[in-house]
Amino acid sequence: MYLTSFSYSEYTGRPQAWSIEPFRLAKVTLLVGKNATGKTRTLNAIFGIGRLLSGQQSLTYQSGQYQLQFSYELSQEQPSYQYELDYEDKSVVLERLVEGTVVRLQRSSSGTGTIYAEKIESDLDFQIANNQLAAAVKRDLAQHTYLEHIYNWAQSVRILRLGRQTQNLGIFIAGEPSVDTVSSESSSIAAAFISGERNFGPERFNAEIVKNMNELGYPIQTIQVIDLGSLRGVTVPPGMPIQILAIKEKDVNVSVDQSQMSAGMFRALDVLVRIHLAKLQERPFCLLIDDIGEGLDFARSSALVQLLVKFVEDSELQVVMTTNDRFIMNTVPLKYWSVVHREGGSVLVFNERSHPKAFKEFEDLGLSNFDFFSRKVFLER
To answer: Could you say which residues of the chain have pLDDT below 70?
Structure first.
């Protein structure tokens, strides 16, 4: 299932008001815009609602209003599900889930509401704490299977912050790590790599990543996880070896671990490990990548984005990326673009789905994609 429409606002009617106006998403969505226009904040808002709906995050935020639409197929005219959440002072004011045109769940600020039970084909009354999301706590495979679709999407949301990324160590107990799927922002690349090799084998997983790194211009021959035992400045309890990724390049006798890699090489490797793992698991994933291409030169950043687009189009993945790099803008076709433009506290998003005429007319001119952005053609409504 794919996220097809998204909007968010907070502190409505107050001086600190902020909103991301409704916009439609594709399988590949490249959010382009100047600094401080709301690109990263948009990713954070999507990541935040994913954590709330999956139960990984409690409702500790002061204010927020979300409206999301989901579809099984992006070509659908009408969404499969619509979800709305409104909260103030860490308490839910309104929550509603609509399947097609039928309300399946709704609740008010008192925590009381109704939820459709499939086996008895009737609505049931409920009451929960006003700081809980009914979509998360009322899951029941016997009576509310529709909630599983929302939950599965929420669990799939992952974020990579390439602009602020550190080469994190993976610390595991006795070589038996508890491995996440694609990994959230807090877990290590080594954990994701180990999961891929264990579940899909070196030839299917490792070899493909080596091949893609070569295609990006990194002459890598092998990738492996090594046990450092101990590392200066890092203190771990006894029996907890430090495991980390290492690569060996062609015509170089010495391996290089991830703490010694260039930032660009590590970021490219990190993205490829996680995207390959997500694709091989053959289930939907929503991957958010902030500052795609950060730390990479023109040729490698362009090649990495082209690889990602190819992976996504051939899988059930959905990727939302941000950039303000003109070379990446010129590499990625306009059909994947969503231009982010801020007017005060309001973030507006323009794309081919919302403004088809402006995009089509510009493409016919034969100019570079960056001209579409720099000349603000998207504002010609």
So the answer is: 163-187, 229-241, 377-381
| SS3 letters across the chain | CEEEEEEEEECCCCCCCEEEEEEECCCEEEEECCCCCCHHHHHHHHHHHHHHHCCCCCCCCCEEEEEEEEECCCCCCCCCEEEEEEEECCEEEEEEEEECCEEEEEEECCCEEEEEECCCCEEEEEECCCCCCHHHHCCCCCCCHHHHHHHHHHHHEEEEEHHHCCCCCEECCCCCCCCCCCCCCCCCHHHHHHHHHHHHCCCCCHHHHHHHHHHCCCCEEEEEEEECCCECCECCCCCCCEEEEEEEECCCCCCEECCCCCHHHHHHHHHHHHHHHHHHCCCCEEEEEECCCCCCCHHHHHHHHHHHHHHHHCCCEEEEEEECCHHHHHHCCHHHEEEEEEECCEEEEEECCCCHHHHHHHHHHCCCHHHHHHCCHHHCC
Phi, psi at residue 190, to the nearest 5°?
Answer: -60, -40
- Predicted confidence at residue 166, as pLDDT, reads 55
Residue 95, pLDDT score = 98
The position carrying tokens 């090489």 is 265
Please give the pLDDT value at position 198.
87
Predicted confidence at residue 278, as pLDDT, reads 85
CA dist 319 and 322 (Å) reads 10
pLDDT at 184: 46
Please state the domain extents for the chain: 2-165+283-379, 168-260
d(CA 145, CA 139): 8
CATH number for the domain running over 2-165+283-379:
3.40.50
pTM: 0.89
- Please tell me the predicted confidence (pLDDT) of residue 220: 93
Rounded to the nearest 5°, which phi and psi values hold at 176?
Answer: -120, 75
**Cα separation of 40 and 30, whole Å?**
12
CB 228 within 8 A of CB 241: yes
